[in-house]
Amino acid sequence: MTTTTQRPKGHDGPIGRPLDRVDGHAKVTGGARYAAEVPLPGLTHAVLVGARVAHGRITSLDTTEAERADGVVAVLTHQNLGKIATQPRLLPSLAGSVAPGETFFPMQSDEIHYAGQHVALVVADTYERALHASHLVRITYAEEPSVTVIDQGRDQAYEPEAIFAGFVPGRSERGDVATALDGAAVTVDRTFTFAANHHNPIETSATTAYWEGDRLTLHDATQGVTATQHTVAALLGIPHTRIRVIGHYTGGSFGAKAMVWHHPALAAFAARAVGRPVRLALTREQMFFGCGHREEQEQRIALGADAEGRLVALRHHKLSPTSPFDHWAEPSLGVAGQMYACPNYEGVYRLIHAHTMTPTFMRCPGEATGLFALETAMDELAERLGLDPLELRLRNCSDTDPASGRPWSSSGLRECLRQGADRIGWARRSAPPAEDGDWLIGLGMSASAYPVYGPYNPQRARARVYADGTAVVQAAVTDIGTGVLTAMTQVAAEALGLPVERCRFEGGDTDLPNVAAAVGSSGAGMVSAAVHTAASALREQFVARAVADEGSPLHGADPADVVVRDGRMVLRGSPGTGEGYAELLQRQFLPDLEATGSWGPPPQDAPYASMTFGAQFAEVAVDPVLGLVRVRRLAGAFAPGRVLNAKTARSQLMGGMIWGLGQALLEATHMEPGTGRWANASLGEYLVPVNADAPDVDVDFVEVADTVVNPLGVKGVGEVGQAGVAPAIANAIHHATGRRVRKLPITIEDII
Ligand code: MOS
């Protein structure tokens, strides 16, 4: 695997260095403590029981046997759990406030809305005893007819006013698509189908809860501690200031822990009921029924182009099941409608109320599916036009956001397309395709993009330098495996002028200054803005004290002439004149100095739009007789703005690309329509790429300077690495075999 990272010329500070993870040692030695590993005196263990029907009512509930089982402390059901105070409305966790995964809370009545819905919680002195007793809860149901897949509910489809918790309109239009399609020189009109997907982080969702009087502490596996805090507060009806949420380590998530599902509040209810700490960890199977999923979907795309291949019309419709409660669809039409210049556009979401839980964010939520439809259709358009697919993309690149008409704050899309093409050797793409024994070889490509989310509320951080010359910098961000703690250590060290070894970054605790949850590829940009602002303010405070202090060698100097190197404030051009942070603090009898920093939100009427762009290229080998597809190479070029840590950024992008391979060829959750249950709810049957599936992955960077997104120009790398991989692979399969597959995942039956 190869990577190129360019650092700004002349820059030798900590930002951008491929620093090893600051939490790496703790993670690989078992020193890192996850939410389900916190030792507490008197700890009890809770196990959930899920409904066995998709729709209906509980007709009888017998907990006698479970209650009598060894070690059982309590069995909670809708009859004795207690009522929630309010059911908060759906809101993305990005805002750092209330963010329930669905506007329904279980165990409040005898109604069943989806299979697996929590119906009982068994608490015992050990996990094994709780698990055993959970099988002794006897429940009977009156079952009613259910709808769980698109094919059962097609005739009930409706057009919602808005989707995605109300943030995305159900319909968007510009120009006149029907007329433009009629007048187009070439058109492509195709339907694409997508299996449901589940996130499957290695750490299953878990909460450990305990009360001290009226104060609640939750150790939670989450993408955002503040979101957990506010959601549980609303559900329990207590002030959020009485709840502390700690999430120092989160073992992967991919969106499963973005919204706050039911188990943190259930753990709090249970801990209150038994008067002891409660640990509630979902089983692997329960991860398929307890924290959302990427919905099954159908998308239809119609493209119209003029004879030179310039798009004149794009019509994009999506149909998908949502829960009985919420109008949720992942926003598949967004980025696909902003990728290329196109004057006439129509995007429409249609939903079916189904007996499943509310779907949720799953890595690259919407972009990954929408771009599969768009970029596969673009490949087909190129074929119709007799144009090279790369050339077709280059002809349609736009310097402005086609949706808002505003210029991109930075792009780099053309450079990514050209650079990625060089890396894969696009020039050797020839028709007819090459062969290697029984294998047909093909090359395919796709453009890639992911939104840059700005802050909904001020992003805050705190920086402190102690009299021993070390610093601690804090913000409530959670590291879900991205390396954000490491990157923020670098940002803090650079702004303070300290070596990284003397900086410690702390996150994952609601007692720390609030920043957005680790969602939407926004962590690096938003948290770095707060950390940079706080650390810069502290550096300025030190310099102001030094120049005002008669005892300082810098007394009387212009603060603008003072720079900090290795913790020493020195005069620019005269590095012998100055003093260290520690010296100043000791002379002034100060144990430490501290500053907070706050950044954003930027004005709503900003005259630009922001997007992270990239390009994906794939080389596949296909055995058309056996239906096998092997991805031999992936090459991606990305323009994510400032890279904070070359190693962790590359890892994020590489992981995204391999995840895209999984989306293309492996990942599918199958609904069993008779029971409304996910039929393959295990890591044995839900397939994800393993090392043997992972090809040679080439991650390349295109440098773009973005001066408007945030102070450091960071656009994020969490999800753009996945966008466009699946269509690049599908297009490569077409190049190799002539077969056009319009469904994900692409399996053996689609090839033979
Ligand atoms: Mo991520 S799918 O934006 O939580």
Automatic annotation (TrEMBL):
A GO MF label: iron ion binding
Span of domain Aldehyde oxidase/xanthine dehydrogenase a/b hammerhead: 29-145
Keyword Oxidoreductase: yes
EC number: 1.17.1.4
Record-linked InterPro entries: Ald_Oxase/Xan_DH_a/b, Ald_Oxase/Xan_DH_a/b_sf, Ald_Oxase/xanthine_DH-like, AldOxase/xan_DH_MoCoBD1, AldOxase/xan_DH_MoCoBD2, AldOxase/xan_DH_Mopterin-bd_sf
Entry-linked Pfam families: Ald_Xan_dh_C, MoCoBD_1, MoCoBD_2
Record keyword Oxidoreductase present: yes
Biased composition (Basic and acidic residues): 9-22
Keyword line: Molybdenum, Oxidoreductase
Record region (Disordered): 1-22
Full protein name: Xanthine dehydrogenase YagR molybdenum-binding subunit
Organism: Streptomyces spectabilis
